[in-house]
TrEMBL record:
The lineage of its organism: Bacteria, Pseudomonadati, Pseudomonadota, Gammaproteobacteria, Vibrionales. Belongs to the 4-toluene sulfonate uptake permease (TSUP) (TC 2.A.102) family. The chain crosses the membrane at residues 76-97, 104-123, 143-168, 180-199, 205-227, 234-251. The keyword Membrane applies. This is Probable membrane transporter protein. Keywords: Cell membrane, Membrane, Transmembrane, Transmembrane helix, Transport. PANTHER family: MEMBRANE TRANSPORTER PROTEIN YFCA-RELATED, TRANSMEMBRANE PROTEIN YFCA. It is a multi-pass membrane protein. It is found in: Cell membrane. GO terms for cellular component: plasma membrane.
């Protein structure tokens, strides 16, 4: 498809903002999906093309968190297994199920997250010094990670909130390390989903790669912000982004 200069700027700017939002919280696809659909893409094509940006921002963020030694390594495989299985099932569902299911899923996720953070924020953002739990010690965390993977494979928008609920809420990682692991899970199940979408011929490469360039730059900036920010600042940013996600889901 032909792309104008205005559309290139739109993709770069929304990609940059989404890269920051997704790395620090979640919901950046609430910006990028409408931007892609404004270019005339059907919802399923925009959903698939968006994954290029998500994948590249995840690669950038994971490398950044690892460079700053904020990436936990001893529990990665047990965390990734249910995420990948869920992502594969979710991507399969997205390729064949009607897109009308996206809005209820997105809105339900946002509202639940906002309610939990308002009533009991410590569930999502553990206090400093809270002991971390291992996946094998908390079998119910497999369900949370699997559901996050399915949701991410299916729609992507807002999956960061679901992953943070599993990683910080269930396994009790602090928000910086939870964000690092969140981006690693996102990288893996997005790669799985993207392969399926490419096989179905749903990915438009030129706008997807332009978007990806913006998200990578945003993710790079966001990692440095996450490392330097106070836990309370990250908590409030997460809360505000959750509310914004609710509003975007209701208006979309």
């Amino acid at each position: 498809m032909d792309i104008t200069l205005i559309q290139v700027i739109l993709l770069l700017v929304t990609g940059f903002l989404a890269g920051i939002i997704n790395t620090l919280a979640g919901g950046g696809s609430n910006l990028t999906l409408p931007a892609l659909m404004l270019m005339g893409m059907p919802a399923e094509v925009a959903n698939a093309t968006n994954r290029l940006g998500v994948l590249m921002q995840a690669v950038t963020a994971v490398a950044g968190f690892k460079r700053h030694k904020k990436m936990e390594s001893d529990d990665i495989i047990p965390i990734l297994i249910p995420s990948v299985i869920g992502g594969l099932l979710g991507a399969g569902a997205a390729a064949y199920m009607p897109s009308s299911l996206i809005k209820p899923l997105l809105l339900g996720t946002m509202l639940t997250m906002a309610f939990v953070m308002l009533v009991k924020p410590s569930v999502i953002a553990p206090e400093p010094g809270t002991p971390v739990k291992k996946v094998m010690q908390t079998p119910h965390s497999w369900w949370g990670l699997g559901m996050a993977g399915f949701y991410g494979g299916f729609v992507q928008a807002g999956v960061g909130f679901v992953l943070l609920a599993a990683l910080a809420g269930t396994l009790r990682y602090d928000l910086v390390r939870a964000n690092a692991l969140k981006m690693l899970c996102t990288l893996v199940f997005t790669l799985v989903a993207l392969v399926l979408f490419i096989a179905k011929g749903l990915v438009l490469w030129v706008p997807g790669l332009i978007l990806a360039f913006g998200t990578m730059f945003g993710a790079h900036i966001a990692v440095n912000m996450a490392i330097k920010a106070k836990a309370s600042t990250l908590k409030w940013f997460l809360f505000v982004m959750t509310l914004c996600g609710c509003i975007a889901a209701m208006l979309h």
